[in-house]
Design brief:
There is one protein chain. The chain is globular. The chain has helices spanning 31-37, 112-126, and strands at 15-19, 25-30, 49-52, 57-62, 76-78, 83-87, 97-101. By secondary structure, the protein is α+β, with helices and mostly antiparallel strands. The protein has two helices and seven strands; from the N terminus they run ββαβββββα. The strands form two sheets. Strands 5-2-4-3-7 form a five-stranded antiparallel beta sheet. The longest helix has 15 residues, at 112-126. It is 16% helix and 25% strand.
């Protein structure tokens, strides 16, 4: 028997813990890494973005399984058996989880290849110099 999954819609009021791996997987990065990665994504590549106002974490929604093989340091992929607190569409400021880039029903997923590239570059940029002869 075929089970149809209704289109993704955030909760209508406040926020709700939702299962990853159904409509999307989520890619989590720290706010400092996200601040470096976000400017590298244009409007066509970047979908809706959730910010955890308490934990200084940022979440991009990507197609299910699109980031399964990623091995970026400090970046975590939330997929099946994980959940994410998803804010209502009107929540665009803290406290709690809010939409850093507003929810758009027709463009909430981020292009995974572009996100991987942006996060890789951000992580490289954020890495301290390892050359012992270099002075700060």
């Amino acid at each position: 028997m075929l089970t149809l999954i209704p289109p993704f819609q955030p909760p209508p009021t406040e926020q709700l813990a939702m299962d990853a791996g159904v409509h999307w997987d989520a890619v989590r990065a720290t706010a400092d890494i996200a601040a470096l990665a976000l400017p590298e994504l244009d409007e066509q590549q970047c979908g809706s973005v959730i910010c955890d106002g308490y934990g200084a974490l940022v979440y991009w929604l990507v197609p299910v399984h699109a980031a399964d093989a990623w091995t970026l340091p400090t970046v975590r992929v939330l997929s099946a058996r994980s959940c994410l607190v998803v804010p209502a569409p009107h929540r665009v400021t803290p406290p709690g989880n809010f939409w850093m880039r507003p929810f758009a029903r027709d463009h909430y997923l981020t292009e995974p290849t572009a996100l991987h590239q942006a996060l890789s570059h951000a992580l490289t940029t954020a890495q301290p110099a390892t050359d012992p002869g270099r002075r700060p």
